[in-house]
Specification:
heterodimer; A: four-stranded mixed beta sheet; 9 strands; about 35% helix; B: about 260 residues; mainly alpha; 10 helices
Chain lengths: ~180, ~260
């Protein structure tokens, strides 16, 4: 790294002392992963509802995916640690329920990451959840649409289980809610 | 009564109702968890573990609403109350029995819950309306699952049909306890916080009658079981002894 670049980094750090920058907070949140789907950040997952910065204090409004999700506490803790690392003195994570989280809240980038990870992304349903429950789901391995749902319940609350008739493999998908 | 007294009565009534809502979820969730490692096939083992975890999440949601009203700690309520303080209906504390018994109970309860949540979403108390909207999205999967099992067992073999009918005969009058009002419910209905249970009961009976008859079952004409929610049997004490054992062994432990 050259001297000039170092100097730039220093000057950014100095500005942070006066107050955290919104885009850096979002960047940090995008590095906190869902422990049950480790390729998906909280931002990809669509659970961050609001970020408010007041000097070196940050308030985050976050919504749970499923109410019984055991990963929720882990996410809250990791989010807090990440922002403290970034220089926040106080991090307040508030849980909000309304409007309830929907699988439609998963970002496009998140959907692509799910597919690469081997999990079928949920079908967009625009509020009519039956659409997602009945839509044909492509196998994340071979792309075949000749798949069938074998259970609405998978290894985590947010997953369901399919079998692909194309490649003969079983796979999981993120539930449409 | 002064407005302040009316308000006080409604808060007390709501605290009691939220406890009943939470306790039903907690006790059913615990019973569902007892199938872990024992269900007839792996998919069902996983399904019931999921359902159990969902119910626990919903119980926490209702306990947290109670916490807003009286500052009570959800863990204290779950792990350190004795059976006589629980407000779940007796059907939910009954041992799991066979698969037909478990699935029919889940179906009867899921159907009630689907109709209840629809109404709670319209509650005048915003936190309850918001929680109901959240829970309803998750419950869709439960009802689809248990309703399918009722159909499958009812129309399956002679043996599966017989077992399901036996479960229905055992559970029907118990299930009516869902619609026995708690003291103070009338206040909540007046304030449009909680729905009228007699209307809910009619709607539920019409709904389940259709499904159960389609599954080839005969509805018993037993009188409804009308004891209030403070009555429990020995099974709840046994369930709590198991569920609360670890927490009570080391109350200071952090999890």
């Amino acid at each position: 790294m050259s001297q000039t670049e170092l100097k730039n980094v220093d000057s950014v750090a100095q500005e942070d002392v006066a107050g955290l920058e919104l885009h850096l907070v979002w960047k940090a949140l995008n590095e906190v992963m869902d422990p049950e789907i480790p390729v998906l950040s909280l931002v990809d997952l669509g659970v961050i509802r609001e970020v408010e910065i007041d000097g070196d204090r940050v308030r985050i409004a976050m919504t749970p995916t499923f109410s019984g999700c055991p990963a929720l506490e882990v996410m809250r803790r990791e989010l807090r640690e990440k922002l403290l690392e970034l220089g926040a003195q106080e991090v307040d994570v508030e849980l909000v329920l309304s409007p309830p989280w929907s699988s439609d809240d998963i970002s496009e980038a998140g959907r692509e990451k799910l597919r690469e990870f081997g999990l079928a992304p949920p079908t967009r349903h625009d509020g009519v959840v039956e659409v997602a429950l009945e839509a044909p789901v492509a196998c994340p391995r071979c792309g075949s649409l000749d798949t069938r749902r074998v259970s609405a319940f998978g290894t985590t609350l947010c997953r369901e289980v399919f079998v692909c008739e194309g490649c003969g493999e079983g796979f999981e998908g993120v539930k449409g809610v | 009564m002064t407005p302040a007294q009316t308000h006080g009565h409604a808060i007390t009534a709501l605290t009691i109702r939220l406890t009943a809502l939470a306790d039903d979820e907690l006790i059913l969730g615990h019973r569902a968890s007892e199938w872990t490692g024992h269900a007839p096939i792996l998919e069902e083992d996983i399904a019931l573990a999921n359902i159990s975890q969902d119910e626990l999440g919903h119980a926490i949601g209702y306990y947290q609403l109670r916490q807003l009203l009286d500052g009570s700690d959800p863990d204290e309520l779950a792990y350190f109350r004795n059976a006589d303080a629980f407000l779940n209906i007796r059907l939910l504390e009954q041992p799991n029995g066979d698969w037909a018994y478990t699935m029919l109970r889940q179906y009867l309860y899921d159907s009630y819950e689907a109709l209840l949540l629809e109404r709670l979403e319209q509650s005048n108390w915003q936190p309850l309306a918001e929680l109901a909207a959240k829970i309803r999205r998750e419950e869709i999967f439960h009802l689809r699952h248990s309703a399918l099992w009722v159909e499958r067992l009812g129309l399956g073999t002679t043996e599966s049909h017989h077992r399901l009918q036996r479960a229905l005969d055992a559970q029907w009058s118990y299930a009516q306890q869902l619609f026995v009002p708690l003291p103070g419910d009338a206040d909540l209905v007046t304030h449009s916080i909680f729905p009228d249970l007699s209307e809910l009961a009619d709607s539920w009976r019409a709904h389940v009658r259709r499904d159960l008859e389609n599954a080839g079952l005969t509805l018993p004409d037993d009188p409804p079981y009308s004891w209030d929610r403070t009555h429990h049997g020995e099974h709840l004490t046994e369930l709590l002894a198991d569920m609360q054992l670890v927490a009570r062994a080391d109350p200071e432990a952090s999890w």
